[in-house]
Amino acid sequence: MVKEYFRPESLDEALELLAAPGALALAGGTWSLAFEARDKPERVVDIGRAVPRTIETRGASDGRGAELCLGAGATFQEIVDSKSTPPAIRAAATSMANRNTRNRATVGGNLGANKSCSSLAPILLALGASVEYKERSKASVTIALADWLAAPGGLVLTVIVPRADGLRASSLRASRTACDIATSTAACAFRLEGGKVAGLRIAIGGFGPRASLRPDVAALFEGKPLPTKADIEKTVAPLLQARADQRGSVEYKRLRGAALVADALHAAEEQI
Ligand SMILES: Cc1cc2nc3c(=O)[nH]c(=O)nc-3n(C[C@H](O)[C@H](O)[C@H](O)COP(=O)(O)OP(=O)(O)OC[C@H]3O[C@@H](n4cnc5c(N)ncnc54)[C@H](O)[C@@H]3O)c2cc1C
Q: What is the third-level CATH fold of 168-270?
């Protein structure tokens, strides 16, 4: 049960309060305070005033070298509504079907929860995002999102997504019904150079403890014209290792995941 609640004004104060054993950083609370079965922390530190919330494009006015900066405190609905949001990230945010949850759930909370079927992680990984985060008594550091997700630390401040002309991207989720938990997620980003796939990154969720980049899957298609969906499914399915649970059997998840990757590759559109 929550016994202590703090709402610090500054990041350093928040990190100091979080140093106490068992303290939890509270953003939207849609993961950490939801679900009766989950143990609730005794001390919560509401970081709403301590982390940035803005969504903006920074960099050259001609768009070259520009980057999208998502404040960790930005909600899913703010991502959906922002004019700065590229279509594939908007699609990922919208895939959280419940608007009440989108109004509370934040970027930082989504990465902090680090769920296998996270809505945002796959597309952010595919787009080559990095994360600025800060630990107590240390300067803030920027590292690849994949590295932060593998060893989360401190508080995420900003997610930085490089923007580049001609990059095609998409983000999809598979679930049995729109509001159901996803069985898999897939996102990709690449260019078409002379009709061939170039610089492909694919990230997949639902096939391990967290969503992750899959260079082994991307290598199947790099430097070649995009195959048909049926051929993509055939080559990707053997690379997906699933665990059977209430969402589906191993075979169902493998085939559904491979079909999702095929759909994502064919749905990729230029990000304006
Ligand atoms: C009805 C419902 C539907 C949902 N649907 C989806 C869905 O479609 N897709 C999906 O991905 N998730 C879904 N979730 C799970 C949850 O809503 C998301 O993971 C959400 O993004 C969590 O964000 P939050 O701001 O609420 O995080 P919180 O619950 O406040 O925190 C989650 C975790 O992240 C940590 N954290 C928070 N902010 C930071 C930060 N800045 N830096 C480091 N760590 C931090 C917290 O300490 C905690 O461990 C759903 C939940 C509910 C209740």
A: Enolase-like; domain 1 (3.30.390)
Give the pocket of ligand 1 (CB within 6 Å). Answer: 24-32, 34, 47, 51, 72, 96, 98, 101, 104-106, 108-110, 112-113, 115, 118-119, 155-156
Q: Which atom of ligand 1 is nearest to the CA of 51?
A: 41
Question: Do the Cβ atoms of 54 and 157 come closer than 8 Å?
Answer: no
Distance separating alpha carbons of residues 214 and 260, to the nearest angstrom = 14
pLDDT 10s digits, 142-183: 999 999 999 999 999 999 999 988 999 999 999 988 778 899
Exposure string for 162-189, b = 16+ CB within 10 A, e = fewer: ebbeebbbbbbbbbeeeeeebbbbbbbb
| Strand bridging mode 43-46 / 23-26 | parallel
CATH topology of domain 55-162: 3.30.465
Which residues share a beta bridge with 204? 186, 212
Q: How confident is the model at residue 62 (pLDDT cuts 50, 70, 90)?
A: low
